[in-house]
Amino acid sequence: MADQPLVKVTIDNITIEVPAGTTILNAARKIGGDVAPPTMCYYSKLEDSGGKCRTCLVEVSKGSDKDPRPMPKLVASCRTAVMDGMEVKNITSQRVITARKGVVEFLLINHPLDCPICDQAGECDLQDLSYGHGEEGTRTEFRRRTFEKHTLGNQIQLHMTRCILCYRCVLVADQLTKTRQHGVLDRGDRAEIATYIEKSLDNDFIGNVIDVCPVGALTDRTFRFKNRVWFTKPVDAHRNCSKCCGEVRLWMRGDEVFRVTTRRDIWNEVATASDGKTGWICNECRFEKKKVSDWVIEGPTKVNRKSVISANKYVAATKPDEFLEEVMKGVKPRFMLDIHNESEVNEPELRLDLIDGPAHSNDFKIADEAHNKKLLNGSE
Ligand code: SF4
Ligand code: FES
């Protein structure tokens, strides 16, 4: 691609030069930000991905300098190559914005709204897509698709109802493991990821299906229901591994490693490792190395500020200066108000303001005893 002649393409009024043969999507990713269309099935690290979900639709308002006619229909930017002089509209096209809302509605048509109990919540591409590009509500009312449950062993959980048939997991099994024993069966609304996926689980790299799955259809059973992802702290770490690059992200709470995943790039794809190859990790690193002592910790992961996972991560944050006590001449703020003047929430014997630190159940017991004693004395 690098030896290809450069061609000019204008996307959302920004002109750049890219090698001929580049897709519109990758040209837009060079510009970055919102100009890059969202993707649910394309995955730059997997050959032949894309063309399934239609999330990346764009409008080609000018085909090329040679043939300036616009393309009559919206095109999938992950599958359409740029031409010299091409003009493309993504966020500047009302047609695209409206069509994408329809695509999101279709992707969600059979998807259960079970984010409150789904382990993918907080890092789900479909959740982000529906917030960013979807419409409130749905126009359809019919019985949603359901499936027989497949058990995939102790490491990977499949929830077929959440699957959007992006084929990424099939490509991972095809391209990263020695044998691919699962695929998409049937067509249309019957299509499902099935057959022998459980048999492909003994492949060393099959755990990567969890990381490429854009929704909660494939999740890590060793992490399942253990914690909400935004309560954990992501940390980059590595170890010497004979099977993979050994460069991972640990999701920790205190000293406990809850989960091990690949590292991600800005497109939420598996990042490139320090050896220049894609940083896929093996099952041993992912499922078996759950102790801090297994890893060399590099430091906290830089979390995108837009992600819910960034909540409560104060890397390099400094505590602001507090002047209130100084202004009040050494009187602690908690002594400024007697709660008993305002509320009857506690017995007057319980002086929360006099307790050093947060109240403990023992403090309430002591207050109760004092109160009872007083009552007893009063009755004497
Ligand atoms: S299980 Fe996940 S990765 Fe596989 S096709 Fe469905 S949505 Fe895509
Ligand atoms: S990302 Fe292009 S069709 Fe899915």
Q: What can you tell me about this protein's structure?
A:
The chain has 4 domains: 6-107, Ubiquitin-like (UB roll); 115-125 and 135-220, Alpha-Beta Plaits (2-Layer Sandwich), CATH 3.30.70.20; 229-310, no CATH class; 324-379, no CATH class. Helices cover 21% and strands 16% of the residues. It is built from 9 helices and 13 strands. The strands form 4 sheets. The chain has a 5-stranded mixed sheet with strand order 2-1-5-3-4, sandwiched between helices. The mean pLDDT is 85. Residues 39-42, 50-56, 76, 78 line the site of FE2/S2 (inorganic) cluster. The site of iron/sulfur cluster (SF4) has 14 residues, from helix 4.
Q: Tell me how many strands there are.
A: 13
By secondary-structure content and strand pairing, the structural class works out as alpha+beta
Biggest pleated sheet: 5 strands, mixed
Assigned CATH architecture of the largest domain: Roll
Discrete helix count: 9
